[in-house]
Amino acid sequence: DLxxxxxxxxxxxxxxxxxxxxxFLQIPPEAVITPMKEHQRYFPVFNKEGNLANHFVTVRNGNxxxxxxVKEGNEKVLTARLKDAxxxxxxxxxxxLDSYTEKLKAVVYQEDLGTIYExxxxxxxxxxxxxxxxxxxxxxxxxxxxxxxxxKADLVTNMVYEFPELQGIMGEKYARLSGExxxxxxxxxxxxxxxxxxxxxxxxxxxxxxxxADKIDTITGSFAIGVEPTGSxxxxxxxxxxxxxxxxxxDGKLExxxxxxxxxxxxxxxGKIEIKEETIQKLYDFFGLRMKNILTEQGYSYDVIDAVLxxxxxxxxxxxxxxxxLAKIKTSEEFEALLAGFIRANNxxxxxxxxxxxxxxxxxxxxxxxxxxxxxxxxxxxxxxKEDKYYEILVEIASL
Length: 400
Description:
Elements: H1 2-9, E1 13-19, H2 29-39, E2 43-46, E3 52-61, H3 67-93, E4 108-110, E5 114-115, H4 116-134, H5 138-150, H6 158-162, H7 169-177, H8 182-190, H9 205-224, H10 238-251, H11 258-267, H12 277-297, H13 302-310, H14 316-330, H15 334-349, H16 365-386, H17 390-398
Antiparallel strand pairs: 1-3, 2-3, 4-5
Helix pairs in contact: 2-3, 4-5, 4-9, 5-8, 5-9, 7-8, 8-9, 9-10, 9-11, 9-12, 10-12, 10-14, 11-12, 12-13, 13-14, 14-17, 15-17, 16-17
C-alpha cells in the first residue's frame, strides 16, 4: 500500500537510505514503524533475522543532486518524531495499564451511547455472558473478563493519543509490562481483529470472545439510536464488524447462535436505551446480508445461498456446512431423486393440514413400504443431524 502511494506521489523517484540512532530500537518496533510509514511515508528496514534495523528508505522527488542534504533533512524530521514516541513510551510505562481505565470516563464514545467507560462496561457484561453461553472453562472466562476490562485502556495513553493506529498494539505491550497474563495481553490486541476483510482472526478463545462482545455492542448500539449503514455510507464500519463476527464464529466453530448473541447484547442496554423488536429483526436481517456476502466470497451460487438462508441462519457456524452440502449434492446423481421426492411430497402436502401420520390406517402395501422406509430414514437423519452431517442427510432423504 505504501509503495503504491509513493509511486503516485512522485514524478522523478530517487530512493535513498537514511539512519536513526540505535537507542530508539528500545521502544516497541510498531512505535518506530508507525511514524515512519504513516507520517513520513518512509519504508522501514529489517535485518536478516527479521528484526527492525536503525535505517529507513525514503523516495525523493527529483534526481540524485544534493542527496546528502535531503537525507540529513529526513533524518532530522524522523528523529524528532521518534523522540516524541520515546518520551510517550517512557511516560506511559510509569503507570500500570489498569490505572488508565478511570480516564475513559472523560472520553465520549458517542453522544447517545455515553462514554468509552460505559462501552467497556457493556463489553465486560457481553464477554461474561458469551463465555458462559459457550461454556468455556473458568480460567478462560476470568482471562476474557480481565481482557475486556483492559481492552480500551490504551486509548488514553500518550502513545495512542498521538498515534491512534497503535490502539490495541500498545495495549498488548503495556499489559505485558504491567505483569498481566500473556493470554490477557494478547486478547487486548486480538479484540480489534479482523480490522479489514483481508486481516487475520483472533487465535485465542479470549480474543474471540472479547472481539465478538465489542463488535456486537457497537452494532446493536448504533442500530438502537438509528445509525444504520445506507448505500455507501457506513461511518461506524458496521458491515465490516458484522462480517468479522460471522467469520470468527464460523472459523472457530462456535456454538453461539445469532439470536442469542443479539439477546445478550440487547440486555446490556437495559435501563438505558429501549431497543424495539423491529430493531432486533433489523439486526438479524443485517447479519443475513453479511452471511450472503461471505458465502458469495466462498464461491457458492446464488440459489444455494438463497436456499440455506431462507429458513433459519441463526447458527452461523452451520450455514457454511449446509451450503457445502447443498452445492455438493447438486452435482450428484441423488439430486434428481431428492428433487422428485420433494416436489411430489410438497404438492400432496399442500392439500392437507394434518400433522400426524396414523400408521395403523395404512392398508396399501406400497404405502406401508414407503412409511417403513420413511421411519428408517427419519431415525438416521435425526442421528446425522446431531453431527451436522448435512450431505449425508440429503442423500438419506433422496433414498425415499
